[in-house]
Amino acid sequence: MDIHTNVTEQAHATSEAICVENLVKHYGTMLALDDFNLHVHQGEIFGLLGPNGSGKTTAINCILALLSHESGTVSVLGRPMTPTSYDLKRKIGMIPQNVAVFNELTVRENINFFCSLFIPKNKDRKQLVDDAIAFVGLQEFSSYRPGKLSGGLLRRLNIACGIVHKPELILFDEPTVAVDPQSRNAILEGIQHLRDEGATILYTSHYMEEIEQICTRIMIMDHGRQIAQGTANQLKDMIDMGERITVETLDLDAQTLNTMQALPFVTQADFDGKELKIACRHGNRNLADILDILHTSGTNFGHLSSQPPTLNDVFLELTGKALRD
């Protein structure tokens, strides 16, 4: 029984790229991580969300053993992570939010330098550097220095430097900040391609649509601990907010508006003379009931739309709308 249990536990552990259990970290008297838990499966893109000061960066630094912690455990790729786990760290790639390249070196020289931190022999690096340049689409810019690159190209260089050694686990910290839509799309497609090639991705961003687009599972954390986790749809089901219904109309009378506002699933209904906007709780007949009232009252209306809750709605409901530093 003990042998079977150990084999089962080992198989479970190795199926997780990141396993964080009950992590506690203080900065002086401030509790930064409060029994924090995180489990990222191998081969998935896992989204980590949280407002400023929620503990995301501290958690990532503890996972990489760049910060010490008071209690709890961290395992990466099935093995305990320590500050001296150099062979394990070679299997990890980190793309920081702030671009970290050398302005004196060309694109190729930058990528080659970061590759040399993991692959000592120059002959072994050449193909890896060529592959990384091609992966981020910087072939025609390989002789440029970073100062000549646009913001989007600079972000792509930053990514190439972090993935050139073909890591098994890659941590992206807001890689699309201040880039144009074309570059953002190229970066997101590249991240999905890395996953398809076998890498595991931990992805942080304040762009909720990105998280919803590429992430298999998502965690929202605040005050140093998990407050919600699941797929995007599972997270949306956790909040009270349902669909938003918008109706274009010019002749909605006060009595019909009052009838709308009195519906048990309606949390708010406003009419500005041109549009009726209704916020609803979850329900299967919300739109049908709204249409019934409009038809019964004889209200003429044009375009009608129904918008389901977004991940941004989930984030704001769970973490609050107060500004964070």
UniProtKB/TrEMBL annotation:
InterPro entries: AAA+_ATPase (IPR003593), ABC_transporter-like_ATP-bd (IPR003439), DrrA1/2-like_C (IPR025302), P-loop_NTPase (IPR027417). Residues 18-248 form the ABC transporter domain. Transmembrane segments: none annotated. PROSITE patterns: ABC_TRANSPORTER_2. GO terms for molecular function: ATP binding; ATP hydrolysis activity. Keywords: ATP-binding, Nucleotide-binding, Transport. It holds the Pfam family DrrA1-3_C. This is ABC transporter ATP-binding protein.
